[in-house]
Amino acid sequence: MIENLNKKIAIGYLWNLASKWITRFIGIISTLILVRVLNPIDFGIATLANIVMALFVMLAEVGTDKYVIKSQSCTNELLNSAWSLNIALKLGCGLFIALLSFYVADFIHEPLLTNVLLVCSVIPVIGALKNVGLLNYERELNYRPLTQLSVLVKLTVFPITIGLALWLKSYWALVIGTLMSEVITVLGSYWIHPYRPKWSSRQWSEQWHFSKWMVVSTTTGYLRSRLDAFLLGRFLPSNAVGLYRVSQEFAWLPFSELIAPATRSFYAGLTQLIDDKEALTHQLCRYLALAYLLVVPSAAGIYVLQDEIVSVVMGEKWADAAPVLGLLSLLMLSMPLNIALQSLLTHMSKLSYLVWIDVVMIVAIGASFSLLYQQGITLLATYTLARVALVVVFIALLLLVYKAVLHVALTRVLAVLLLPMLPSGVMYAVVALLKSALAFNPLLNLLILAVVGMAMFIPLMVLLIWGAKAWIPEYQYVLELLANVRNTVLKNRVTSQS
């Protein structure tokens, strides 16, 4: 059973990864064009609008997707109730955004935000209309149609957003692009799945029983992850928020495009192991090994190449973003621990632990940023450094929950986390030394340094895995998983050719 499940998760990860790579490639091209057409203040206004909108969405989010995926049997009544409840809550969400738009804009000292929030108030309502039948694909770990839909949406929205940016040259291009993305996603969801939901409220009480902590956890988690940008909008000019948000997007690319796609199939796969605690622990540590094998060298690489990345990818008018980009990449070190813990505690109905961690972090972020503001600090990099310093506290809190609730040995988790740091440190030192000796154009310098970095990390990491396989078997599993994926791809290719 475990072997078959791992194959399904691997294939689901591949489809998620393919979707992310294709859509992200389009997204990166779009962003590269947009950062040269629009100004940081445009991204700042759009970011502030997204933060406010998403906060209200979180308050109205009851985890309908996780509730359906977790359920042992998926009936039409279950799907209809989940779909209807989501619509009802998102209608209220949109109404609150519209009513509070002026007051939020006044609080942030950005009057342009009022009209933007009024338009954004319809986005969650439109998104709630999406065909709930798509969750059946996730229950079956069938991500192929979902991949096709996401790619179609991205290909359609891409020219619309770029065209609007070239025409309007303002933040409205980003806002309208987001709106169109939701509309096309909803239409496409009914095209790729035959299920047609109907209004029903029969199972709302059962879902709320499951979701009451989900609502609180989702809201506090969102506040923890977005409070920094929101406070920057109040303490600093809107262009600082734009610099911060765009830097964040590029700094977290390795996680959002390589690791996050695995979490959907990882979560769905857990439902089949919920009664086997030992298997759950093994699956968790294997996921962490795969995640940190990618996250640690990526964070080190982005940090050491921050100037080159900004110069080549973002352009000279974004030069102030370089130190922010480098620092924000270090936040990725907490993400695998956090997202895996969320999945497990959701299944165990113990999300209250995550809520308390989030509350501690919200207080810490708010206090540190307020203190900097009271001292007259206006440098964005200083606020970013304060935010990154708190990641140590966050990781410590997560590890305490792993030990206290999941009974996972901290030595096992720390070994998985720390093993890639040695070759990553060597890679960092070599690349940093070589940087000063290169005198080519920025693009060529970046390519040479990236290749040298990979050439240093990969063989060292392979040697460490081979040497430590008896003590840290999770990394040996990663190699076996990659071999399994390769064999599956080759088998499918041979089958298609015959």
Question: What does the model show?
Answer:
The protein has 498 residues and is mostly helical. The chain has one domain (2-497). The protein contains 23 helices and no strands. Helix 4 runs parallel beside helix 10. The longest helix is centred in the first third of the chain and has 36 residues, at 2-37.
What's the topology here?
Elements: H1 2-37, H2 40-59, H3 64-70, H4 76-108, H5 113-120, H6 123-128, H7 134-139, H8 144-168, H9 172-192, H10 204-235, H11 238-251, H12 253-270, H13 277-304, H14 306-314, H15 322-329, H16 335-347, H17 352-374, H18 380-389, H19 391-404, H20 410-418, H21 421-435, H22 442-468, H23 473-497
Helix pairs in contact: 1-8, 1-12, 1-23, 2-4, 2-5, 2-10, 2-11, 3-4, 4-5, 4-10, 8-9, 10-11, 10-17, 11-15, 12-13, 12-16, 13-15, 13-16, 13-20, 13-21, 13-23, 14-15, 14-22, 15-18, 17-18, 17-19, 21-22
Observed structural traits:
498 residues, mainly alpha, 82% helix, cell membrane, membrane
Number of helices: 23
Sheet with the most strands, sense and barrel status: none
Anisotropy-based shape: globular
Q: How many distinct domains?
A: 1
Pfam families: Polysacc_synt_3
Protein name: Oligosaccharide flippase family protein
Membrane topology: Multi-pass membrane protein
Family: Belongs to the polysaccharide synthase family.
Describe this structure in a few short sentences.
It holds the Pfam family Polysacc_synt_3. The chain is an all-alpha fold.
